[in-house]
Write the structure tokens for this entry.
Amino acid sequence: MTGVGIDAIEIRTGKLKLDLAETFAPAQGEDPGKYTKGLGLHASSFPDVYEDIVTMAANAAHRLMERKGLTPDDIGRIDVATESAFDNSKPVSTYVAGCLEEVYDDDFHHANKGERKFACIAGTQSLDDAFNWIRAGRNRGRAALVIATDTALYARDDPGEATQGAGAVAMLVDEDPDLVTFSTEQGFGSADETDFLKPNQQFPSVDGKRSVNVYLARMREALDDFAAQAGDLHPDDYAMVPFHTPFPGMVRKAAALGYRHIVRDTDVELALAEEIGRQPRPEEFKTREQYFDAMEEYTDELTETERYGDWYADSIEPTLSIAREVGNWYTGSVHVARAAGLKRSLEEGREMAGEQLLVASYGSGAQAEVHSETVQPGWREEIEALNVDEQIDDRYELSFEEYEQIHDVHNHDTETDVEEFTAPDGEFVFDGWGRMGERKYRYVR
Ligand code: HMG
């Protein structure tokens, strides 16, 4: 075995679009600049009436299997990561397998199925489980199907409403993969936090401002923990840094903090010192507040330097291009960031084979995880096969009134009768309720 990692990836967006600057901001009486400049978001994706976490997951998995010429017999494990599950017992992966069995001759009865929950980091945890299963030699030559799927909705008029989204990312984890291999080293920053949670309720309770600080604090711990195993980190060692992206403005903050943190005591800090001085050290200040103020000032100056700007343009900006158009996909977000970065590399003719990615995942509640990945020679063909741009362009654009209707359609507490905005074509759709309260699905040819 030369390595274990992601062999193939597919992205499936919800088929509806809400333009945040043109449609949402004016209706909320807000300046569009809050979205385009502050949060860094242009639009959110939403599921149509007949879409949900199962259809998006099954449609992504189906395209992945067709493209790779797989049948159910090739898959030994199906893990779904989600924080939008509608069933407290039966895992979403069983619904997804049921969908796929409608279009294949054989079945997934041999496959171990499960569901992972830890806010947005569950997708990365499911990749971990698949990696460990294969490295333990329990896969008997089969691959794992990992699917991160979410409908990230907030209550109407919650500040989080600005950062909604919906979509699924299906990933095939296998030996000798075509896309990336995972490092065995990984760093964690994990603590019992109440920044964002859904205690038996559909829409999250969020302390938005605190959630931003918790993200940054846990991420710094995870970076330190990773460095303790992998050795000192240097920005030049990583071609790109895909972060969990609830909105690009969050990554702008995390990238500045991460860069500042890892260049401390390196040649980069020395080179920057000529322009903006050395980083403040706590022992140089009488109080913690003075130290934090000095750090904030240093970070502002750092992000204005050409050196930082060049690093950000190469290593961070490319990873944000899809998120800007689709919003937060919770468990799928960091995996969308990886795909976006590689997609931009392909478009710019940048060779990535052999390059390292530093992948920074996060889930509220709260936990950050950092590991590295090595891009494999087959990356180009894999990324070329994505049709995410077409999906994004083909979305139906909602008016504000239509957005209000679709929010109600997906609100579990609201009964609505809304016509679908798009026509299903060659895909799995939600098909009503079964006799035991289960959701039913069918394939529309
Ligand atoms: P808010 O109060 O709506 O927005 O909350 P704001 O007033 O703070 O503005 C946002 C940014 O836009 C600010 O930038 C403003 O200055 C700027 P910052 O100061 O932060 O750099 N701004 C403008 N810029 C230019 N022109 C303008 C303008 N107006 C304002 N005209 C908040 C924003 C993110 C808190 C809210 O949307 C929220 O609660 N979101 C949900 C929580 C969230 O996404 N938290 C992120 C970290 S936690 C996480 O990532 C986990 C998560 O994915 C869940 C999981 O793990 O399951 C959420």
The chain has 15 helices and 15 strands. The radius of gyration is 22 Å.
